[in-house]
Amino acid sequence: xxxxxxxxxxxxxxxxxxxxxxxxxxxxxxxxxxxxxxxxxxxxxxxxxxxxxxxxxxxxxxxxxxxxxxxxxxxxxxxxxxxxxxxxxxxxxxxxxxxxxxxxxxxxxxxxxxxxxxxxxxxxxxxxxxxxxxxxxxxxxxxxxxxxxxxxxxxxxxxxxxxxxxxxxxxxxxxxxxxxxxxxxxxxxxxxxxxxxxxxxxxxxxxxxxxxxxxxxxxxxxxxxxxxxxxxxxxxxxxxxxxxxxxxxxxxxxxxxxxxxxxxxxxxxxxxxxxxxxxxxxxxxxxxxxxxxxxxxxxxxxxxxxxxxxx
Length: 311
Fold this sequence. Notes:
This protein is of the alpha/beta class.
């Protein structure tokens, strides 16, 4: 079954925190709550959380694999993982993809990956080689769908053309940086996705936490992402977006994070935004996106507030 045909929950649960800022017990609690709410799409990568001292990567996959084994729910979870950015396994050569896939399958305790991402475009490896390696995994049943993460419009279009000409597995979904304060996707890249009939699952849907509304002038937030998130306050646009989020959130009795994700979910080509939570309390407003539909006027208000300068 293709990715676009899957009955996906409107929120993709990001697994970057599992085995990092969320320990095993907290990770299990978040995954349990997500699944109990009807969630079924979990996104991870072999490189999560290799940036942490003492970690080698694969920690998130391991936690998710242990959770699925413990809950015996593999057939109800759509698992997405990535290849290409783990130290020692960088790039998208055929050998790297094959070895990384076998390692991911082992850590996830499964015999197939629902969606296998090319994590970062690799200009040094011919697209024919990369797509050929993915095609072999699809043919063997070890991978069911493939996706492109962090690809430019030109490279994505080229990859799709090669798949078409050579009869190889085709990227069916894009993962890209996109949210209310990062709208660069709205242009050539989105045009390629729409024209080719692809869907997308944007990452950093909450702008590293900025769109939760907890980052305000004069407020100190204890988070590994605080420095990056706070940068959005340095322009007029950041506070303007927060004001608009507050207005819409108040009218629904919702959290700003829920509104930010609902705006993203309503955008053309978006199948489900990705967001992560360190604990169940953080997860609740993310899950609420499933029950919030914004009006045209509300979407327009958020569009205007978040419009880039000159946009």
